[in-house]
Protein backbone atom coordinates (compact mmCIF):
# COMPACT_ATOMS: atom_id res chain seq x y z
CA UNK A 1 0.00 0.00 0.00
CA UNK A 2 1.29 3.44 -0.89
CA UNK A 3 2.10 5.76 1.98
CA UNK A 4 -0.21 8.80 1.93
CA UNK A 5 1.48 12.17 1.56
CA UNK A 6 0.07 15.17 3.39
CA UNK A 7 -0.85 18.10 1.14
CA UNK A 8 1.78 20.82 0.97
CA UNK A 9 4.60 18.54 2.11
CA UNK A 10 7.20 17.67 -0.51
CA UNK A 11 9.44 14.70 0.08
CA UNK A 12 13.11 15.66 0.39
CA UNK A 13 14.28 12.23 -0.67
CA UNK A 14 14.91 11.99 -4.39
CA UNK A 15 16.45 9.17 -6.39
CA UNK A 16 20.11 9.69 -7.23
CA UNK A 17 20.87 10.52 -10.84
CA UNK A 18 22.90 7.91 -12.66
CA UNK A 19 26.06 9.18 -14.31
CA UNK A 20 27.19 6.14 -16.29
CA UNK A 21 25.52 3.31 -18.17
CA UNK A 22 25.44 -0.17 -16.68
CA UNK A 23 27.61 -0.63 -13.59
CA UNK A 24 29.67 2.48 -14.36
CA UNK A 25 28.52 4.39 -11.27
CA UNK A 26 29.78 1.59 -9.03
CA UNK A 27 32.97 0.92 -10.97
CA UNK A 28 34.15 4.49 -11.56
CA UNK A 29 34.92 5.35 -7.95
CA UNK A 30 37.00 8.30 -6.81
CA UNK A 31 40.56 6.96 -6.48
CA UNK A 32 42.39 7.38 -3.20
CA UNK A 33 45.59 8.41 -4.99
CA UNK A 34 46.07 10.59 -8.04
CA UNK A 35 45.07 14.16 -8.92
CA UNK A 36 41.50 15.20 -8.17
CA UNK A 37 39.32 18.19 -7.37
CA UNK A 38 35.90 18.37 -5.73
CA UNK A 39 33.57 20.92 -7.31
CA UNK A 40 31.07 22.35 -4.84
CA UNK A 41 27.65 23.56 -6.04
CA UNK A 42 26.74 27.21 -5.57
CA UNK A 43 23.62 29.15 -6.40
CA UNK A 44 20.43 27.76 -7.91
CA UNK A 45 20.90 26.47 -11.49
CA UNK A 46 17.13 26.64 -12.03
CA UNK A 47 17.20 30.43 -11.91
CA UNK A 48 19.18 33.02 -13.85
CA UNK A 49 21.27 35.51 -11.91
CA UNK A 50 21.61 38.79 -13.77
CA UNK A 51 25.03 39.43 -12.26
CA UNK A 52 28.51 39.51 -13.75
CA UNK A 53 30.69 36.52 -12.97
CA UNK A 54 33.72 34.58 -14.17
CA UNK A 55 33.36 30.90 -15.01
CA UNK A 56 36.18 28.72 -13.67
CA UNK A 57 36.75 25.93 -16.17
CA UNK A 58 37.78 23.06 -13.91
CA UNK A 59 38.72 19.93 -15.83
CA UNK A 60 38.52 21.59 -19.25
CA UNK A 61 41.39 21.69 -21.75
CA UNK A 62 42.09 25.20 -23.01
CA UNK A 63 44.06 24.25 -26.12
CA UNK A 64 41.35 21.82 -27.26
CA UNK A 65 38.63 24.38 -26.61
CA UNK A 66 40.48 27.03 -28.63
CA UNK A 67 41.15 24.70 -31.57
CA UNK A 68 37.53 23.50 -31.58
CA UNK A 69 36.32 27.10 -31.91
CA UNK A 70 34.68 27.58 -28.52
CA UNK A 71 36.17 31.07 -28.16
CA UNK A 72 36.61 34.15 -30.31
CA UNK A 73 39.12 35.82 -27.99
CA UNK A 74 41.90 34.50 -25.77
CA UNK A 75 43.79 36.51 -23.15
CA UNK A 76 47.39 35.59 -22.31
CA UNK A 77 50.81 37.16 -21.74
CA UNK A 78 53.71 38.02 -24.03
CA UNK A 79 57.19 39.49 -23.64
CA UNK A 80 59.67 41.03 -26.06
CA UNK A 81 62.52 38.55 -25.58
CA UNK A 82 61.54 34.87 -25.31
CA UNK A 83 58.07 33.28 -25.50
CA UNK A 84 59.14 29.75 -26.38
CA UNK A 85 57.72 28.33 -23.14
CA UNK A 86 54.47 30.30 -23.19
CA UNK A 87 50.98 29.36 -24.33
CA UNK A 88 51.11 31.83 -27.23
CA UNK A 89 53.60 29.58 -29.01
CA UNK A 90 51.31 26.57 -28.57
CA UNK A 91 48.34 28.49 -29.94
CA UNK A 92 50.31 29.68 -32.98
CA UNK A 93 51.31 26.10 -33.79
CA UNK A 94 47.71 24.90 -33.53
CA UNK A 95 46.22 27.57 -35.83
CA UNK A 96 47.74 26.83 -39.26
CA UNK A 97 45.80 29.60 -41.03
CA UNK A 98 47.48 32.30 -38.95
CA UNK A 99 50.24 34.35 -40.58
CA UNK A 100 51.87 34.89 -37.19
CA UNK A 101 54.80 32.81 -35.96
CA UNK A 102 56.34 32.81 -32.51
CA UNK A 103 59.40 34.70 -33.75
CA UNK A 104 57.31 37.33 -35.56
CA UNK A 105 55.07 37.79 -32.50
CA UNK A 106 58.11 38.29 -30.26
CA UNK A 107 59.66 40.70 -32.78
CA UNK A 108 56.41 42.67 -32.93
CA UNK A 109 56.43 42.94 -29.13
CA UNK A 110 60.01 44.24 -29.26
CA UNK A 111 59.22 46.81 -31.98
CA UNK A 112 56.14 47.94 -30.06
CA UNK A 113 58.19 48.26 -26.87
CA UNK A 114 60.77 50.42 -28.64
CA UNK A 115 58.08 52.66 -30.13
CA UNK A 116 56.22 53.29 -26.88
CA UNK A 117 59.46 53.95 -25.01
CA UNK A 118 59.93 56.95 -27.30
CA UNK A 119 56.39 58.17 -27.91
CA UNK A 120 54.33 57.07 -24.89
CA UNK A 121 56.58 57.32 -21.86
CA UNK A 122 53.75 58.58 -19.66
CA UNK A 123 51.42 55.66 -20.39
CA UNK A 124 51.00 53.03 -17.71
CA UNK A 125 51.93 49.45 -18.49
CA UNK A 126 51.05 46.77 -19.32
CA UNK A 127 50.12 47.40 -22.93
CA UNK A 128 47.75 45.07 -24.77
CA UNK A 129 48.94 43.62 -28.08
CA UNK A 130 46.45 42.19 -30.57
CA UNK A 131 47.24 39.13 -32.66
CA UNK A 132 44.59 38.22 -35.24
CA UNK A 133 44.99 34.48 -35.86
CA UNK A 134 42.10 34.25 -38.32
CA UNK A 135 39.87 32.03 -36.21
CA UNK A 136 40.69 33.65 -32.87
CA UNK A 137 41.86 37.02 -31.57
CA UNK A 138 44.63 36.94 -28.98
CA UNK A 139 44.82 39.87 -26.56
CA UNK A 140 48.24 39.62 -24.96
CA UNK A 141 49.42 41.60 -21.94
CA UNK A 142 52.92 42.83 -22.74
CA UNK A 143 55.14 42.16 -19.74
CA UNK A 144 56.35 45.48 -18.28
CA UNK A 145 59.81 46.65 -19.27
CA UNK A 146 62.72 45.66 -17.05
CA UNK A 147 60.86 42.86 -15.24
CA UNK A 148 60.76 39.08 -15.62
CA UNK A 149 57.23 38.77 -14.22
CA UNK A 150 53.76 40.28 -13.96
CA UNK A 151 52.21 41.54 -10.71
CA UNK A 152 48.58 41.51 -9.59
CA UNK A 153 48.51 45.26 -10.19
CA UNK A 154 49.67 44.63 -13.76
CA UNK A 155 46.86 42.13 -14.18
CA UNK A 156 44.28 44.58 -12.83
CA UNK A 157 45.39 47.39 -15.15
CA UNK A 158 45.70 45.06 -18.13
CA UNK A 159 42.27 43.52 -17.64
CA UNK A 160 40.72 46.93 -17.15
CA UNK A 161 41.91 47.79 -20.67
CA UNK A 162 40.84 44.40 -22.00
CA UNK A 163 37.37 44.79 -20.50
CA UNK A 164 37.01 48.08 -22.35
CA UNK A 165 38.16 46.41 -25.57
CA UNK A 166 35.49 43.73 -25.12
CA UNK A 167 32.67 46.04 -24.04
CA UNK A 168 29.93 46.13 -26.66
CA UNK A 169 31.90 43.86 -29.01
CA UNK A 170 29.79 40.76 -29.50
CA UNK A 171 32.21 39.70 -32.24
CA UNK A 172 34.91 39.26 -29.58
CA UNK A 173 32.91 36.93 -27.35
CA UNK A 174 33.01 34.28 -25.93
CA UNK A 175 36.35 35.07 -24.28
CA UNK A 176 38.71 32.98 -22.18
CA UNK A 177 41.81 33.78 -20.16
CA UNK A 178 44.70 31.79 -18.84
CA UNK A 179 45.33 32.03 -15.09
CA UNK A 180 48.94 33.31 -15.44
CA UNK A 181 49.77 30.84 -12.63
CA UNK A 182 52.50 28.27 -13.13
CA UNK A 183 53.68 30.19 -16.20
CA UNK A 184 57.19 29.67 -17.54
CA UNK A 185 57.69 32.62 -19.91
CA UNK A 186 55.51 35.21 -18.18
CA UNK A 187 55.10 34.27 -14.54
CA UNK A 188 52.94 36.11 -12.01
CA UNK A 189 54.18 37.16 -8.56
CA UNK A 190 52.60 39.03 -5.65
CA UNK A 191 54.23 41.81 -3.59
CA UNK A 192 56.03 39.17 -1.51
CA UNK A 193 57.66 37.64 -4.56
CA UNK A 194 55.46 34.54 -4.31
CA UNK A 195 52.91 33.16 -6.74
CA UNK A 196 49.44 34.37 -5.65
CA UNK A 197 46.36 32.22 -5.15
CA UNK A 198 43.81 31.57 -7.88
CA UNK A 199 41.34 33.61 -5.83
CA UNK A 200 43.67 36.63 -5.85
CA UNK A 201 43.99 36.39 -9.64
CA UNK A 202 40.23 36.06 -10.09
CA UNK A 203 39.66 39.08 -7.84
CA UNK A 204 42.06 41.23 -9.86
CA UNK A 205 40.35 40.23 -13.12
CA UNK A 206 36.84 40.66 -11.72
CA UNK A 207 37.56 44.03 -10.10
CA UNK A 208 38.90 45.20 -13.47
CA UNK A 209 35.55 44.39 -15.09
CA UNK A 210 36.39 41.09 -16.79
CA UNK A 211 33.52 38.75 -17.62
CA UNK A 212 34.42 35.50 -19.30
CA UNK A 213 36.05 32.14 -18.66
CA UNK A 214 39.12 31.41 -16.54
CA UNK A 215 41.27 28.30 -16.95
CA UNK A 216 42.98 27.36 -13.68
CA UNK A 217 46.52 25.97 -13.82
CA UNK A 218 46.81 22.22 -14.29
CA UNK A 219 48.66 22.01 -10.96
CA UNK A 220 45.45 23.13 -9.20
CA UNK A 221 43.65 20.03 -10.47
CA UNK A 222 45.38 18.12 -7.68
CA UNK A 223 43.58 19.65 -4.68
CA UNK A 224 41.98 16.61 -3.03
CA UNK A 225 41.27 18.25 0.34
CA UNK A 226 39.96 21.59 -0.89
CA UNK A 227 36.52 22.14 -2.40
CA UNK A 228 36.42 24.44 -5.43
CA UNK A 229 33.72 26.50 -7.10
CA UNK A 230 32.99 26.82 -10.80
CA UNK A 231 32.30 30.55 -10.75
CA UNK A 232 33.59 33.75 -9.18
CA UNK A 233 32.67 35.66 -6.99
CA UNK A 234 32.60 32.73 -4.59
CA UNK A 235 29.61 32.25 -2.25
CA UNK A 236 29.49 34.57 0.77
CA UNK A 237 29.90 31.52 2.99
CA UNK A 238 33.60 31.33 2.07
CA UNK A 239 34.28 34.68 3.75
CA UNK A 240 32.13 33.72 6.72
CA UNK A 241 34.16 30.55 7.21
CA UNK A 242 37.40 32.54 7.02
CA UNK A 243 36.13 35.02 9.60
CA UNK A 244 35.08 32.18 11.88
CA UNK A 245 38.49 30.53 11.69
CA UNK A 246 40.39 33.66 12.74
Beta percentage is: 15-25%
- Runs with pLDDT <50, length 5+? 1-11
Order of helices and strands: HEEHEHHEEEHEEHEEEH
CATH architecture of the domain at 62-232: 3-Layer(aba) Sandwich
Q: What's the total helix number?
A: 7
Largest sheet, strands/sense/barrel: 7 strands, mixed
Q: By helix and strand content, what is the structural category? A: alpha/beta
End-to-end CA span:
54 Å
**How is the largest sheet built, in terms of strand order?**
4-5-3-7-9-2-11
Number of strands: 11
Kindly report the CATH topology of the domain at 62-232: Leucine Aminopeptidase, subunit E, domain 1
CATH class category name of the domain at 62-232? Alpha Beta
State the shape.
globular
Percentage of helical residues? 25-40%
Rounded radius of gyration (Å): 22 Å
Q: What is the mean predicted local confidence, pLDDT?
A: 90
What does this structure look like?
This protein has a domain at about 60-230: Leucine Aminopeptidase, subunit E, domain 1 (3-Layer(aba) Sandwich), CATH 3.40.220. It has a seven-stranded mixed sheet with strand order 4-5-3-7-9-2-11. Strands 1-10 form a two-stranded parallel ribbon. It has about 250 residues and is an alpha/beta fold. Helix 5 crosses helix 6. The chain is about 30% helix and about 15% strand.
Amino acid sequence: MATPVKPGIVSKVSPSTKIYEGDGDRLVEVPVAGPKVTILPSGDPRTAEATRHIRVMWGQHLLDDVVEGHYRTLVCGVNDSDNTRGILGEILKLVPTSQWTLSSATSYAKVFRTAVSVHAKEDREPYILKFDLDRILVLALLRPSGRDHFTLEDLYRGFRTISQMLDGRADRRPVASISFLGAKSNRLLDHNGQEPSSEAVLKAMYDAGYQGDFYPPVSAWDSPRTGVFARYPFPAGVDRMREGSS
